Structure prediction request, 283 residues.
Amino acid sequence: MSAPIVVDTVAALRAQVRDWRQAGLKVAMVPTMGALHDGHVSLVRIGLEQAERCVVSIFVNPTQFAPTEDLDKYPRQLARDLDRLREAGAHLAFTPGVAAMYPAGFATKISVGGPSSGLETDFRPTFFDGVATVVAKLFLQTAPDCAVFGEKDYQQLCVVRQLCRDLDLPVEIIGAPTVRDAHGLAMSSRNAYLGEAELDIARRLNVILRQSAAMLAAGSTEIESIDHAQQLLVGAGFQKIDYVAARESVTLTPWRRGHDGRLLAAVWLGATRLIDNVEIPAA
Ligand code: PAF
Prediction:
């Protein structure tokens, strides 16, 4: 595979996408914050099934981090990321700096309602405003035909879908299955913060969620299954649980039996916050 073109200005990005369009090529986009892993590679591959060209943005977006969060220590490894993009077959890496995305005097914020309420927002109240604002900018800068987002960040996927519907952004949003390691741990750039002992604990998260989702499907009440999950999580060594919640798959309103649902969780291991979610199997 050849190396992706790397551009850091909106003008250069638009010129390249315009050339592709004039040649009749469809364009997919994968927005990322870098520190690319197998999960991101799978998003690029899915993009390339839908379009002839794939743009990957690499931008650690400051507006989605609260002042207490890990913006400064978030892993940044551009050279390695570009290698991964070459292997994955991506055509262009868009790597804007903070000043290009948020020039002095920037004063706009997009706030999505609906699926952004609760769950992550209860603990990270400004997170989805930051995500929605940067994703809207990236879509307007790139004008892709479609964009691929991982189901690992399930609430984010629902928020981005709502954003595109509400603002008539002509981008088809494709949700991609979570890529997991051999033990079921969801791939995440933040897994790099975990030591070996913590990784062993982290790998219990998906197992416990799947057990509890199966309990729900088999007829246990939500309270019983969530209590069970919380006890197992604490027993496994997670120090803090932000939430374990059963929600409807599209709206993220509380799950009703007989409807498509997801069991979502956010937990802490030391200073690292992990999120994951699984489908509630149909009964
Ligand atoms: O999922 C992420 O990596 C980020 O939230 C995104 C969508 C790239 C926006 O900064």
